[in-house]
Amino acid sequence: MHLRILATTIVTFTCILLSPQSTAGFETVEALGQALFFDKNLSWNRTQACATCHSPESGFADGRDNGVGGAVSLGDDGRSLGDRNAPTAAYAAFSPAFRLNDKGNYVGGQFHDGRELDLAGQAGGPPVNPIEMGMPDKAAVVQRLMESDAYITAFKQFYGEEIFEDAERAYAAMAGSIAAFEKTELFAPFDSKYDRYLRGEYELTTQEDLGMTLFFSQQFSNCNLCHQLKRLPGSEGETFSNYEYHNIGVPENRAVRRLNGVAEDHVDRGLLDNPRVDDAGQAGKFKVPTLRNVAVTGPYMHNGVFEELRTVVMFYNKYNSRSAKNRINPESGEKWAVAEVNDNISLKELETGPALNKKRIDALVAFMRILTDRRYEYLLE
């Protein structure tokens, strides 16, 4: 099976997603990783797979309501709720390994706090997380793998005849296979209206054109300070993240905290919770997310505290606007809540550029809508 043919339509997903037990064999590591990505048997109650919280029908984010408006994910046990929003797995392969860059800033890694260096590390997390897939340990996951003759054959073929003699190695092979699948074109087709515009295949509307101009201009907005990686002109293959970490003053999601058992006065320290980071100046910082498919993967921020994309733009705008109306969160009708971590806020970046009026806010939203992969454009309706 050649995985490039999978990046066509949602219908294709349905047709080719076979259960591991019914699959005769796997020709590539990527094909093995695909089966593992969708395999619910790798969770304790056999109800949850990677694809449950990273669904291909929902931009590889969690499209379920989960009783919290989709802000965080529900675990395999049917009652455990996380404290952070599941980020999209689309385009995740482009995040570099977690490190300090030449400017002394942390960049890259996986998860909101970069605690895993790469995709394989990320893939190995959820199966043994007690509030996610809930398996007790890696050995238990490997035992589940060995229930499938197709898996046994494939693992031995790709990783050696003795692979199952060491649970750590077998588990790492599983995570590596999933990572290989996540690096395929299926997760990063680069076929949005923006990409088609760059190729001369789509003509921007007046509003989209204005939004693009505002987005890429530091004179008119601060968007590209963090959400642009490649230089203009062109920017083919742009993922719309520089993968750095910032505290932008996001408030606590109290609605989630009231339901998930995490104390409302608990502070999510973001990057400071990364075991490789011990600098208190990193508290409250989270990785800049890709804007690919952002219009169809809400709710927003690391804790899903905002429901609408337009609210996010207005939240940023409050740093530069003196207008009384911009002091109000349109979703709550009340003043913007205080930051969960009020230190280390990236005011230099946030206060760059002028305030945005309604026309410009709407234009920026219109531009971000055209960053949606072709197969998800129907979700914009």
Task: Name its key features.
381 residues, mainly alpha, Cytochrome Bc1 Complex, Chain D, domain 2, 2 domains, two-stranded antiparallel ribbon, globular, disordered N terminus
Task: Walk me through the structure.
This protein folds into 2 domains: 157 residues, Cytochrome Bc1 Complex, Chain D, domain 2; 188 residues, Orthogonal Bundle (Cytochrome Bc1 Complex, Chain D, domain 2). The chain contains 13 helices and 4 strands. It starts with 9 loop residues before the first helix and ends in a 12-residue tail after the last helix. The protein has 381 residues and is mostly helical. The strands form 2 sheets. It has a two-stranded antiparallel ribbon. The protein has a two-stranded antiparallel sheet with strand order 3-4. 48% of the residues are buried.
Question: Topology, please?
Answer:
Blueprint: H1 10-16, H2 29-37, H3 50-53, E1 99-100, E2 106-107, H4 119-123, H5 138-145, H6 149-159, H7 167-182, H8 193-198, H9 206-216, E3 245-246, H10 254-260, E4 286-287, H11 309-317, H12 347-350, H13 358-369
Antiparallel strand pairs: 1-2, 3-4
Helix pairs in contact: 2-7, 5-7, 9-13, 11-13
Outline of the structure:
With 381 residues, the chain is mainly alpha-helical. It has helices at 10-16, 29-37, 50-53, 119-123, 138-145, 149-159, 167-182, 193-198, 206-216, 254-260, 309-317, 347-350, 358-369; strands at 99-100, 106-107, 245-246, 286-287.
